[in-house]
Amino acid sequence: xxxxxxxxxxxxxxxxxxxxxxxxxxxxxxxxxxxxxxxxxxxxxxxxxxxxxxxxxxxxxxxxxxxxxxxxxxxxxxxxxxxx
Length: 84
What we know:
Blueprint: H1 2-6, H2 8-12, H3 17-43, H4 51-79
Helix pairs in contact: 3-4
């Protein structure tokens, strides 16, 4: 039960619980900051004009790069030949 709740998802994305906690927390704080900037921009259109979109683009780029790195590592593991 503990494994299913706390370890299965992090393992499915190639992270330990601690690594996943760090990545998820950093993404969450970035989203909060971008969201606050977007809300302020709604009231004051001259302020934080690109904060929301830059936050989204940055997080998306990190997520895509992480997935690509995981795919590359997985495919490399499948293609390695051992010679004894």
